[in-house]
From TrEMBL:
Keywords: Coiled coil, Kinase, Membrane, Transferase, Transmembrane, Transmembrane helix. Residues 146-173 form a coiled coil. This is Histidine kinase. Gene3D superfamilies: Histidine kinase-like ATPase, C-terminal domain. GO terms for cellular component: membrane. Residues 166-243 form the Signal transduction histidine kinase internal region domain. GO terms for molecular function: phosphorelay sensor kinase activity.
Length: 354
C-alpha cells in the first residue's frame, strides 16, 4: 500500500519540475523576444523548443549522470553525451526551420533576431541542460551526504548498543563475585553468633542497595563510590579481625564529580583475595584523590616474595574491559609487583564536572 508521505513527496517533486519548466519557458520567451515585438511568434517558437530542451535535460540528468558519471564510467558517459548532443542538435535545427517555414513563411527577416541563428538556440538549450545538471548533482551530493550521515549514525548506534550490552554482561559477572565474598563473610559471623552480625547485615544492606539501584546507572557520584568502598572495607575488617591492617586516605570529593560505578571495588576485592599475610597482618593501603580533573586511585596489598599467585580474577579482567569501553584514551592503569607489595595505580581523566 502506497503511503500518504510517499504520495506527498511525489506530488511535491512533480510541482517543482513543473515550476522549473514554466520558468524556463518564460526565460526563453524573454531571451528570444529581445529586439522583437512579435509576441505570438516568440511564444510559439519557445513552446516548440521546450520538448527538445526537456528531452535533452532528462536524458542527461536521469540517465547519463546516474548510470555513468556517478558510477565513474567516464568513457561511456562521454560517448553517450556525444550521441545526445548530436540528436538534440538535429532537433534544435528542426526548431529553427519550424520558425522559418511555419511561423514566417520562409521570410527570415521576420524571425526574431535571437532565433535567426541556430548558435543562439544551442546556447539557450544547453545552458538549461547545464543548469539542470548542476542542480541534479548538488541534490545527489546532498542526498549522499545525508544517507552517509544516517548510515554513520546507525553504525554508531549499533556500536553503542553493543557496548551497552557488553558493559551489562560485565556487570552481571561482577555481581555474583561480589555477593559471594560478602555473603561468605556474613555466614561466618552467623555461625559464631557474633554481636556484630546486625551491624554487618546493615552494611550488607547498604551494599545491596548500591548494587541494585545505583550500579545500573551510567554514572554515579564519586563520593557514593567512596561510601560503597568504606562499607565493603568495614565488612572485611569484621571478617579479618586483628589480622587486617587497612590504611585509607580518601580526599573529600565534591558530589559533582561522577564516574562509572564499581570501577575501584574489583581492585579492592583482589587485594583481599590474592593479598597475603606478612608479619601476621594482611596489609592494604588505599589512596584516592582528585587533582586537575583527574582521579588518582592507588591500592597496595602485602604479598610474600615466595608467592607465584599472579592469577587475575574475573573482577580484574572485567574492569580492564570496562575501562577500555568507558574511558578509552582517558585512563592509565599500571600494575606492578615486587617482593613485598602488589601495587595498582589507576588514573581517570574526568572531562568536566557534571
Amino acid at each position: 500500500m502506497i503511503s500518504r508521505d510517499f504520495i506527498l513527496k511525489k506530488t511535491a517533486k512533480l510541482l517543482l519540475h513543473i515550476i522549473f519548466w514554466v520558468i524556463v519557458l518564460f526565460c526563453y520567451s524573454y531571451f528570444f523576444g529581445h529586439n522583437s515585438d512579435n509576441i505570438n511568434y516568440v511564444f510559439s517558437f519557445s513552446l516548440f523548443l521546450m520538448p527538445v530542451t526537456i528531452g535533452t535535460t532528462y536524458a542527461v540528468t536521469d540517465i547519463l549522470i546516474p548510470k555513468y558519471l556517478l558510477h565513474e564510467k567516464y568513457g561511456l558517459f562521454i560517448l553517450y553525451c556525444t550521441y545526445t548532443i548530436i540528436i538534440s542538435a538535429f532537433f534544435i535545427v528542426m526548431s529553427f526551420f519550424y520558425g522559418l517555414l511555419f511561423l514566417t513563411g520562409l521570410k527570415i527577416g521576420e524571425m526574431a533576431p535571437m532565433t535567426q541563428s541556430p548558435l543562439f538556440l544551442f546556447i539557450a538549450v544547453y545552458f538549461v541542460v547545464f543548469v539542470a545538471s548542476a542542480i541534479n548533482l548538488v541534490q545527489h551530493n546532498y542526498t549522499s551526504i545525508s544517507a552517509n550521515q544516517e548510515l554513520k549514525n546507525k553504525v554508531l548506534e549499533a556500536q553503542l548498543k553493543l557496548k551497552e550490552q557488553e558493559l551489562h554482561y560485565l556487570k552481571m559477572q561482577i555481581h555474583p563475585h561480589f555477593l559471594f565474598n560478602t555473603l561468605n563473610t556474613m555466614y561466618g559471623f552467623a555461625l559464631k553468633k557474633s554481636e556484630e552480625t546486625p551491624e554487618m547485615i546493615l552494611k550488607l544492606s547498604n551494599l545491596l542497595d548500591y548494587l541494585l539501584y545505583q550500579v545500573d546507572k551510567p554514572f554515579v557520584s564519586l563520593q557514593e563510590e567512596i561510601n560503597h568502598i568504606e562499607d565493603y572495607l568495614a565488612l572485611e575488617k569484621m571478617r579479618f579481625m586483628n589480622t587486617l591492617d587497612v590504611s585509607m586516605n580518601f580526599d573529600k570529593i565534591a558530589h559533582t564529580i561522577q564516574i562509572a560505578p564499581m570501577l575501584f571495588i574489583p581492585f579492592i576485592e583482589n587485594s583481599f583475595k590474592h593479598g597475603q599475610i606478612r608479619n601476621q597482618k594482611l596489609s592494604i593501603i588505599i589512596d584516592l584523590k582528585y587533582r586537575n580533573n583527574k582521579i588518582h586511585f592507588n591500592i597496595k596489598n602485602s604479598i610474600l616474595n615466595t608467592s607465584k599467585d599472579n592469577v587475575q580474577g574475573i573482577g580484574l579482567t572485567n574492569i580492564k574491559k570496562r575501562l577500555q569501553l568507558l574511558y578509552k584514551d582517558m585512563h592509565e592503569l599500571n600494575i606492578s609487583e615486587n617482593d613485598d607489595w602488589y601495587h595498582v595505580h589507576l588514573v581517570l581523566k574526568i572531562t568536566k564536572p557534571v
